[in-house]
Design brief:
This protein is α+β, with helices and mostly antiparallel strands. It is built from 23 helices and 26 strands. An 8-stranded mixed beta sheet has the order 9-8-7-10-6-5-11-12, with helices on one face. Strands 19-18-21-20-23-22 form a 6-stranded mixed beta sheet. Strand 15 and strand 16 form a beta hairpin. Helix 21 crosses helix 22. The longest helix is centred in the first third of the chain and has 23 residues. The N terminus and C terminus are likely disordered.
């Protein structure tokens, strides 16, 4: 009847108890001596139990510390004696109570689980007995504010005097585990929770005195009582009789635990931890209703209704807490769609209808059941923070008892944090308190299966265009994070990730398989470019050649898009490349086009050298471009350079953390390459200026201005916008003055008319 643990790993339990005993040895200055010297040796205790002594029993006499005996002493042939350690039971109990549990609220989960086990035992026995009647188990919780007590009562199997001594008086003795072992293979038909035999002692987290009144079949009603977990007594009980069989557990709460007599607190704890217990849990609650009664103090007006007033009326009634059903324990074919929807809304406090769900179980080396949901809208917490730590995707249960949703080692990777679900497994490596999930191979197996099922669920959504468009809008960024972080599932995620495209009119974007289906004949690569918007990408000079050939280009609108596409490498038979990088393959060129490029390189060799000299470290190199068709110049990044979008992101991150930006260079990253369009008029003019005087101020300013134009059109931020504006103004005014100086002198007869004309009239000429 005692113990709320759900793990079969007895080795972990023994190891932990051994550590607890060792801890008590160091603090209690224990001594070792022969067992025969102990007062109240095991032989005497056995004699007392055999005689059926009904006097109140104490663990140990009060005159000396209580002890825990491990085994009999042994004498070897050489005369050496083996001794067992002696420990203070009170000290060991204190360690168990205050070291195993990190949250006091856990006590209610453990005690309700014990009550559920008692009812389950009674149910199982009633089914196996000949002529057994239908059994309806129940658990009741009553809080008394006046006496500061909390009572938990069940109509389960009850405890005999011997079971009270063994299960309540012996640490780590699990009555539930013994019951299951006694059933053998028949134990699989039960839903028993307890395993460790320490859950009962969690009561002392909040109580300084615990009273257990119990009655078994054909047995007397007994009372087990312990104060401060130091000793206990067993006696006959003359309190309110228990109908049939069952157990009434009363906690005399500590002064600082008075919150546990609040209806609201108890209701919240019961719903959180025990909502899916098989037997109904009823809470004795106080209800206030308002009645309308005649008001004797008010004056009545003849011919009108008598005046009334509203008065509160308080009453108490049983409120069933666990109304929800653990539908994940049922076969999927037996669960209706509306049940799935109702469970989703109730369990996760959601208001939207889930777009999809997957219900499955795994049997074999690891056994578990799971139910995963795909929300149709972004939870509010995730809308504020993409990876909000307060959002826990999976709730863990063991035999329908809630364990936790906060684990250091998550069952789902963070890129699936938008998924909602429950997992119920008896094989999870929990510690004795069932609060901490330990690292083990079991976790890896469960996690991989959950991820695979989640991907299958999203894959099914992709078949519905409207649902997939909504999913991509809501959670598309998470899929791209998965592409970046989850190498094992990268290929599957790439088929689901969507990106904006220069050719796709839909706002939801396109997937890589869809892009490949639309590729032009002869196209050998998948191209992408970083930009602040789709319009900016479409007008970027670096993709002019691709646009002319009709090639589609993906658009990385933020840093997640860019990092995801950078890490793809190869999709199917096609390389995924950044169209704004140097030496990118822009498609096949004809021999005539290749010849024109080579000729232009020779013709502009001096111009490129002069521009590089004028710009200095602003650029890595200056060269003739084969990608430009209408723009005079463009900036492209070296192979490991940083795009303008990423540069802005890095600057924002650095500004937020107060880091120095000096190491990022003048443009906020590695120096870019300047490419010139040999067919553009501006480049031809620059060539003429260089031929006239490469070191002239006007030539250097013109070269710098061409660089500024390339930076702006390629999406970069100008390091000095004021200098750029000054160069533009100088260029404008300088050309106007030169045009005025070259104008031929006017004839004398025409002078008055010319003088009368506005000064600005000559500007357009």
């Amino acid at each position: 009847h005692v113990g709320g643990g759900a793990l079969d790993n007895s080795t972990q339990m023994i190891s932990r108890l051994a550590l607890l005993l060792v801890a008590s040895l160091s603090s209690a200055a224990l001594v070792a001596r022969p067992l025969s010297s102990f007062p109240g040796a095991p032989r005497a205790a056995a004699s007392s139990a055999a005689d059926g002594d009904s006097r109140p029993l104490n663990v140990r006499p009060a005159r000396r510390p209580a002890t825990v005996l491990m085994a009999d002493a042994a004498v070897a042939e050489d005369g050496s004696e083996t001794f067992e350690f002696e420990a203070e039971v009170a000290k060991v109990m204190d360690i168990i109570i205050n070291s195993l549990y990190s949250d006091k609220d856990i006590f209610l989960r453990e005690l309700i689980s014990n009550a559920s086990d008692a009812c389950d035992k009674k149910r199982f026995l009633s089914l196996t007995e000949d002529g057994g009647s239908a059994y309806e188990g129940r658990i009741r919780v009553v809080a008394d504010k006046e006496t500061n007590t909390l009572t938990i009562e069940d109509n389960g199997i009850g405890l005999t005097r011997k079971e009270m001594r063994e299960n309540l008086g012996r640490i780590a003795q699990s009555g539930t585990k013994k019951f299951t072992e006694a059933l053998g293979s028949g134990g699989d038909a039960t839903n028993l929770i307890g395993q460790f035999g320490v859950g009962f002692y969690s009561a002392f987290l909040v109580a300084d005195k615990v009273t257990v009144v119990s009655k078994s079949a054909d047995g007397e009603q007994l009372k087990w009582e312990s104060a401060a977990a130091s000793a206990y007594t067993i006696s006959q009980d003359d309190s309110t009789p228990i109908e049939g069989t069952g157990t009434r557990l009363t906690l005399h709460l500590k002064e600082d635990a008075d919150k546990y007599v609040s209806d609201y607190t108890l209701r919240d704890m019961l719903k959180r931890y025990s909502e899916f217990i098989s037997f109904p849990i009823a809470l004795w609650t106080e209800k206030t209703e308002y009645e309308t009664v005649p008001d004797p103090d008010a004056e009545a007006t003849e011919g009108e209704e008598p005046p009334t007033k509203t008065v509160p009326k308080t009453s108490n009634e049983w409120e069933t807490i666990n109304v929800a059903k653990p539908i994940w324990m049922r076969p999927p074919k037996e669960v209706e769609e509306d049940e799935y929807s109702e469970f989703y809304k109730a369990t996760f406090r959601a208001y939207d209808e889930p777009d999809a769900h997957v219900h499955f179980s795994l049997e074999g080396q690891v056994e578990f059941r799971a139910l995963l949901y795909l929300p149709s809208s972004v939870p509010w917490e995730l809308s504020q923070d993409m990876f909000n730590d307060k959002v826990k995707p999976v709730k863990l249960y063991v035999k329908r008892v809630f364990i936790s949703e906060n684990f250091e080692e998550q069952l789902l990777p963070r890129w699936l944090s938008f998924i909602k679900g429950v997992v119920d497994s008896e094989d999870l490596p929990l510690n004795v308190s069932r609060e901490i999930l330990q690292k083990s191979k079991v976790l890896s197996i469960i996690s991989k299966r959950l991820v695979r099922k989640a991907l299958d669920m999203i894959g099914d959504i992709a078949k519905d265009e409207d649902k997939f468009a909504r999913f991509s809008s809501n959670f598309g960024r998470y899929i791209k994070v998965g592409v970046i972080e989850d190498r094992d599932n990268k290929d599957a995620l790439l088929k689901l990730a969507t990106f904006t495209s220069t050719a796709e009119p839909k706002a939801s974007g396109t997937t890589l398989p869809q892009y490949v289906d639309r590729m032009k004949e002869g196209q050998k690569q998948i191209y992408y470019v970083s930009a602040a918007s789709k319009a900016a990408a479409a007008s970027s000079p670096v993709i002019e050649s691709l646009r002319k050939k009709g090639y589609e280009v993906l658009v990385a609108l933020d840093q997640i898009d860019e990092i995801a596409l950078q890490g793809v490498g190869k999709f199917g038979d096609f390389d995924v490349v950044d169209a704004a990088k140097e030496n990118v393959d822009l498609g096949e060129q004809s021999d005539e086009e290749k010849a024109e490029v080579e000729e232009a390189k020779k013709s502009l060799e001096a111009t490129c050298a002069a521009v590089k000299a004028a710009l200095g470290d602003k650029v890595d190199k200056v060269e003739v471009s084969s990608r430009l068709t209408s723009s005079p110049s463009a900036l492209v990044q070296p192979q490991w350079g940083m795009s303008p979008q990423m540069q802005r992101f890095m600057k924002a991150q650095a500004a937020a953390t107060g880091d120095d930006l000096g190491g990022l260079g003048g443009m906020g990253g590695m120096a870019a390459n300047l490419e010139l369009n040999p067919a553009h008029a501006a480049v031809r003019k620059l060539k003429g200026l260089v031929a006239a005087d490469a070191n002239a101020t006007s030539t250097r300013d013109y070269a710098t201005l061409l660089y500024d134009v390339a930076a702006v059109s390629s999406g970069y931020e100008l390091a000095d916008p004021a200098a750029f504006a000054a160069r533009v103004v100088t260029l404008m005014t300088g050309e106007a003055e030169e045009a005025a100086e070259e104008e031929p002198p006017a004839a004398d007869a025409a002078a008055p008319a010319d003088a009368a004309a506005p000064a600005d009239a000559a500007a357009p000429a």
